[in-house]
Design brief:
Layout: E1 5-11, H1 18-27, E2 32-38, H2 43-52, H3 64-73, E3 82-86, H4 93-101, E4 105-108, H5 116-129, E5 133-135, H6 143-153, E6 160-168, H7 182-187, H8 190-193, H9 197-214, E7 218-226, E8 237-244, E9 249-255, E10 266-271, E11 274-279, E12 285-290, E13 296-299, H10 312-316, H11 328-347, H12 362-380, E14 386-387
Parallel strand pairs: 1-2, 1-3, 3-4, 4-5, 6-9
Antiparallel strand pairs: 6-10, 7-8, 7-14, 8-9, 10-11, 11-12, 12-13
Helix pairs in contact: 1-11, 4-5, 5-12, 9-12
The structure holds 1,4-dihydronicotinamide adenine dinucleotide (NAI).
The site of 1,4-dihydronicotinamide adenine dinucleotide has 27 residues, from strand 1, helix 1 and helix 7.
C-alpha cells in the first residue's frame, strides 16, 4: 500500500537553523511525516521541540544512538523509514553509518563528513547495505538549474570551455563566533567543522553546482585560502582555479567576508556556441546567451514551444504556474520529493525514474570532501596545480 515515509531527525531543534527548513521541505508534497527525533544536544530543548512538532513524547529520544536502536526494534508498520541528519558537520558520519547499518535510509547535510576518510567509509556503508543516502546540496534542486544542466547535456552550447561559479556571503565579516553566535562558533572550530570553514560551509555547494550543471569533473586545482578576520581559527575566503576533465577551465570563488552580500550564488558556463547563467537571488530566470544572437530569458513553469521546450527535469521539479515565484524552500523540497520517490520505488521493487533519481548522493559527498582536501593541500603547498585526490 502507498503510504507516507516516516522521518526521524537528529538535530533541528528549537536551537537550530536548517532543521526547520528540512521539515518544511519534507512536508511540502505530503509524502513524508515526522515520527521521532533527538532534536538537540540539550535534552530539554529536544523534548520541547518534539512537543511543539507533535511528536509522541516516547519517541523523542535522549540521543541518536538510542533513537536508532529503539526504532529498529519497533514493528515495520511503525518504525521510521529514514533519518535526517542536521547536526554540525562532525556529527554527520556516526549517525549516518549507524542508521544505514540498522536498515534506515539517510538524508544528510553537507559537507557530508569532516574528512575524506569518513566520506569514503560512508560510501562503503552505502554499497554494503544498499541503502539510499541523499545529500542536501540545496541549489541543485531548482528547476532552472536542472534546465541549464539539460541544455549543457544536450549540446546546446557546444563543447564546454569555461565555468565560473561564485558563492559570496558577508555574515562572517566579524568575529561572530566569539559574539554568541552558536552557528558561527561550531563552523569556525576545526574539530567540529573540518579542515576548511569557507570550503566546507559554502565552497562544496559551489563545486557541486559546477560539476552538476556542467556534467564535468574537476581534475586539478590551484587554490588561495585566506583568514581575513583576526582571531579566527579557519579560513573565511577562497579563490580557486579549476581544470575539468574535457579541458575546460574554471574559477570558483567562495567567501564569507564579502561584506553586504547575502547568498549570492551564481554560475556561468560557456561553450563554443554560447553560454548560460543562473543566480540564486533570481532563481526563476535562466539567461541563455548564444553567439551572434540576442539574449534569451527562460522562466520557470512555462510551456514553451519547441525548440524552447523546458526539459522534463525542469518541469518535474516545478509545482506552480509561471509567474508565481518558487524559491529555496521548493528547491529543497524537490530534493526531498525525489529522495522519497526513489526510496518508495525501491521498496516496491520498481526502478525509480531518471527524474526521481536526480538528487545528490554519497558519491557527491565524497567529491565534496575530496574537493576540500585538494584545496587545503594545494593552499599549503608551493606547487601550482594539485591533482584532485580521487
Ligand atoms: P545549528 O547550529 O543551527 O543547529 C545544529 C543543531 O544540532 C542544534 O539543534 C543542536 O542542538 C543539534 N545537535 C548538536 N549536537 C547534537 C547531538 N549530539 N544530538 C542531537 N542534536 C545535536 O546548525 P545549522 O546551521 O542548522 O547546520 C546544521 C548542518 O546543516 C551543518 O552541517 C551545516 O553545514 C548544514 N547546513 C546546510 C545548509 C544548506 O544550504 N544545505 C544551510 C545551513 C546549514
Amino acid at each position: 500500500m502507498e503510504r507516507r515515509l516516516r522521518m526521524g531527525m537528529v538535530g533541528g531543534g528549537k536551537d537550530a537553523f536548517i532543521g526547520a527548513v528540512h521539515r518544511i521541505a519534507a512536508f511540502m508534497d505530503g509524502k513524508i511525516e515526522l515520527v521521532c527525533g533527538a532534536f538537540s544536544i540539550d535534552p530539554d530543548i529536544s523534548k520541547e521541540s518534539g512537543r511543539e512538532l507533535f511528536v509522541a513524547q516516547n519517541r523523542v529520544y535522549p540521543d541518536y544512538k538510542t533513537m536508532i536502536e529503539q526504532e529498529a526494534l519497533l514493528p515495520e508498520g511503525e518504525r521510521m523509514d529514514f533519518l535526517t541528519i542536521v547536526t554540525p558537520n562532525f556529527l554527520h558520519f556516526e549517525p549516518a553509518k549507524l542508521a544505514m547499518e540498522n536498515g534506515f535510509d539517510v538524508v544528510v547535510e553537507k559537507p557530508m563528513t569532516v574528512s575524506l576518510e569518513e566520506a569514503l567509509a560512508l560510501q562503503e556503508v552505502v554499497q554494503r547495505t544498499g541503502r539510499t543516502l541523499c545529500l542536501t546540496h540545496t541549489y541543485s534542486g531548482y528547476p532552472m538549474v536542472k534546465q541549464a544542466k539539460a541544455m549543457v547535456r544536450e549540446g546546446h552550447f557546444g563543447k564546454i570551455r569555461k565555468i565560473v561559479v561564485e558563492y559570496p556571503q558577508g555574515w562572517l565579516s566579524r568575529l561572530s563566533e566569539r559574539e554568541g553566535n552558536a552557528g558561527a562558533a561550531w563552523r569556525a572550530d576545526p574539530k567540529r567543522s573540518g579542515k576548511s570553514l569557507v570550503m566546507g560551509d559554502i565552497g562544496t555547494h559551489a563545486a557541486h553546482l559546477a560539476e552538476y550543471v556542467s556534467g564535468l569533473r574537476i581534475t586539478e586545482l590551484c587554490a588561495d585560502l585566506t583568514t581575513f578576520v583576526e582571531g579566527r581559527l579557519l579560513d573565511d575566503d577562497g579563490s580557486v582555479l579549476l581544470r575539468f576533465e574535457n579541458g575546460a577551465k574554471g574559477v570558483l570563488m567562495a567567501s564569507q567576508i564579502s561584506a553586504g552580500e547575502e547568498n549570492a550564488v551564481r554560475i556561468r558556463i560557456y561553450g563554443e556556441k554560447g553560454g548560460v547563467e543562473w543566480a540564486n537571488e533570481d532563481p526563476n530566470n535562466l539567461i541563455v546567451k548564444m553567439l551572434d544572437q540576442p539574449r534569451q530569458l527562460y522562466r520557470t513553469g512555462n510551456a514553451y514551444a519547441a525548440p524552447y521546450t523546458l526539459s522534463s527535469f525542469a518541469t518535474h521539479n516545478t509545482r506552480i504556474p509561471a509567474g508565481h515565484p518558487e524559491g529555496l524552500l521548493e528547491s529543497f523540497a524537490n530534493i526531498y520529493r525525489n529522495f522519497a520517490l526513489t526510496v518508495s520505488a525501491k521498496r516496491k521493487g520498481e526502478t525509480p525514474s531518471p527524474e526521481a533519481l536526480d538528487f545528490p548522493t554519497v558519491d557527491d559527498g565524497v567529491r565534496g570532501m575530496a574537493f576540500i582536501d585538494t584545496v587545503v593541500k594545494n593552499n599549503e603547498s608551493n606547487e601550482k596545480w594539485t591533482k584532485f585526490v580521487l
